[in-house]
């Protein structure tokens, strides 16, 4: 191994073993076996090579709002627009002079000094699956052969998978680096949404899935307190949020972990057995991660959130949103580096109709409460500066309010990839900061347009991942991690 390669390994990063300039030379392409398909990524990474990571964050909580949060009803209100644009909600002032957000997010308004906004994220798709892939992977173009109907190993790797790969050497225990909870995003038809796993990186790099929330094809939101159906079909929702079964990535030689963790005492025998095997057998890092999830008492406490301290439950909320963010907070405290929280099942935030009552009564109250409790906890413990929180969906909503009478009793907004507002907190983010702006209708960016590539790069940079970092495939070919510049003004 060359001295340069040894230096890269010493610092725990996978870097390209040649400079980008060398790799882009025609001779180097042939010598290294790089196909023409690698040129685009290497060229794009050239622009990012000078970026110095902000590097203050040690942990990430990525809150994903599947369905698409309406910017007009949340963080980019247009009170002076015509009625069919501005909607029913009114803005309120935050603690930051001049910054206003929706009246139904009063707790976040009181904590504006702890968070920032980007009001100008934009991409080119109004379709759910494509939008999910773009925002979950940080790529505004879709891979060749992309299908909205199912995930594929040709899909690009998710931000959680990339971050988990890049930060695996930072993990000081045997816990998995990246976790997704409390459920996989599944369409009401039963198809799994693309963009959630490691894609082309391969199954061994998939984030670990912690399933605590059962699938329901006609009920959304923060059950049991705030469950609702977009189309008000009246289908019963009897789901229970419970300490979950752990779903392991395929290919580990451990197909499943039997049983649930509903009662911790029921796991004692399995924990003892797995702990014994971990000592006497040559488990690799991933298998040891599986053992650690079952043997670490701090992990058991983190997973068993429905039986958490009553004061914590009162602050976060006794519902799936509150339990999910409390679980995320406990997992990062236990040592997990990245946690993606799907705040509601697939298309929970897809407010085509009945938008205003559902946002006011079912979506904003548990979100406002749980996210504010998370900010308070991290602030009180001194961990907010080293824990980056981001919140986004796959797209925003249309400027024009519409009524689809065939399906809904009341109006809402349709899909809109051209603009969404994204929330950032912690990890060195400058609170009270607003990046970018939109036009008077809330339709398009007018200042500082930001792409999914910039969104992903901001996360990687805040976590201290170098701009030269790459992941290597099974043939040891480098694939750059950065494909855009971070949103430097946030920090």
From TrEMBL:
Pfam families: DUF1501. SUPFAM superfamilies: Alkaline phosphatase-like (SSF53649). InterPro entries: Alkaline_phosphatase_core_sf (IPR017850), DUF1501 (IPR010869), TAT_signal (IPR006311). It comes from the Bacteria. This is DUF1501 domain-containing protein. It comes from Bremerella cremea.
